[in-house]
Specification:
Blueprint: E1 10-15, H1 17-20, H2 29-44, E2 48-53, H3 56-64, H4 73-96, E3 102-107, H5 109-113, H6 115-130, E4 134-139, H7 153-164, E5 168-173, E6 194-196, H8 218-228, E7 234-239, H9 245-250, E8 257-260, H10 268-274, E9 281-285, H11 287-296, E10 305-310, E11 317-321, E12 327-332, H12 337-343, H13 351-355, E13 369-371
Parallel strand pairs: 1-2, 1-5, 2-4, 3-4, 5-7, 6-8, 9-11
Antiparallel strand pairs: 7-8, 9-10, 11-12, 12-13
Helix pairs in contact: 2-4, 3-4, 7-8
């Protein structure tokens, strides 16, 4: 059976810790050689390739003689600093064997949350691709702290796919794809060949998994596929140990699990808003405002806000929630938390009388809002 995958021009490949580190015994260099060869073949076919690679912390653990993933943040950061040296050196050597240059790109949540830094990252990534390099992307674990972590490299890969508007996100793991039961425990488990990225029922087949070396699991891969779909990106979750897996996936072979975007891609600015992992505050809406936003996608007015939570400034990202606590929307707010506290419940024509000025009649304009 073949798949009707769209013609891909730009591909993001994500390789997880369980694959790349040979189960804690250092980097699996034969595997790296095979993946580098496959990516070089894609480049020869005219495709642009971005690699999101785990393994820095795990490689650092191996070099430092650690047997368990550290729990203290400074030890994790130290492991990442040591391991990143070996990881990048290995990729540079493997790609150089094919006449290719690797480029190290380290990102944090703040790099992607700040609009100017986000645009700079996108321009730099575009320049690296134009120069024919293969960007090797990882989270900057050496400086990231818990409150601003991206969380896992599946999420990072999806954000990178949105950043560069990739055609395909290929997540390589130690499993053959998504199954309807745990294949390690149930011999009757069947692989799910394809599905929709927005299909929340797929979550019933997975549970969060945190391995000895990594933080991800199949659940994070499904979330990544849903996030990547915002830019129209297709996702395939497949085994990195499959022979020539990259070429076979791109040729449309029935390999792994194919998750298709089934909604219209978001505009670039709205995609950036949707990709914010940490909002600066919460606006608690009344029932009427929540219904209007969900049903018509109109702008949020101050009259519909019942309560304000958090500290935020004008222009920062806030989350709008319904009275039952469910998320309704996320957007850029036109007033600070202190100002919203003063004007909540007021009509637009009453704002100036209360504050002495009016930035905008809307609290969050629909052009700067994404429904959840």
């Amino acid at each position: 059976m073949s798949r009707a995958l769209p013609q891909a021009r730009r591909v993001v490949v994500k390789i997880g810790s369980a694959l790349i580190t040979a189960d804690g015994t250092g980097l699996d260099r034969p595997a790296l050689q095979a993946w580098a060869r496959q990516m070089a073949e894609l480049r020869e076919q005219g495709l642009e390739v971005i690699l999101v690679s785990s393994g820095a912390v795990a490689e650092g653990m191996y070099r430092l003689g650690m047997t368990e993933r550290p729990h203290q943040l400074h030890q994790l950061q130290a492991s990442a600093a040591v391991g990143q040296m070996g990881l990048v050196q290995a990729y540079e050597q493997e790609f150089a064997a094919h006449g290719l240059h690797a480029a190290q790109v380290l990102l944090t949540h703040d790099d992607l949350a700040d609009r100017e830094r986000y645009l700079n990252a996108r321009s730099t990534m575009q320049a690296l691709l134009t120069l024919g390099t293969i960007p090797v992307v990882n989270e900057n674990d050496t400086v990231a702290y818990e409150e601003i972590r991206l969380g896992d490299n599946d999420t990072l890969a999806a954000l990178v796919a949105n950043l560069v508007v990739a055609d395909l996100l290929l997540i390589l793991t130690d499993q053959e794809g998504l199954f309807d039961a745990d294949p390690r425990r149930d011999p009757q488990a069947r692989r799910i060949a394809e599905g929709r990225a927005s299909d929340v029922t797929l979550q019933q087949f997975v549970a969060p998994e945190f391995g000895r070396l990594g933080r991800g699991g199949m659940a994070t891969k499904l979330y990544a596929a849903e996030r990547a779909a915002r830019s129209g990106t297709h996702t395939v979750i497949a085994s990195g140990r499959e022979e020539r897996v990259m070429a076979r996936v791109l040729a449309g072979e029935d390999v792994g699990t194919w998750l298709q975007p089934d909604r219209e891609p978001l505009a670039a600015r709205k995609r950036w808003i949707a990709d914010q992992l940490h909002s600066r505050g919460v606006l608690h809406l009344d029932e009427g405002a929540a219904r209007v936003l969900r049903e018509s996608g109109r702008s949020l007015l101050a009259v519909g806000v019942a309560r304000v939570e958090g500290e935020f400034r004008r222009g920062e990202v806030v989350t709008c929630v319904a009275p039952d606590g469910s998320g309704v929307a996320r957007g850029l707010v036109n007033y600070s938390a202190a100002e919203v506290e003063r004007i909540r419940g007021l009509r637009a024509d009453q704002i100036e009388a209360e504050l002495g000025y009016q930035f905008e009649p809307e609290l969050v304009h629909r052009d700067n809002m994404v429904l959840l």
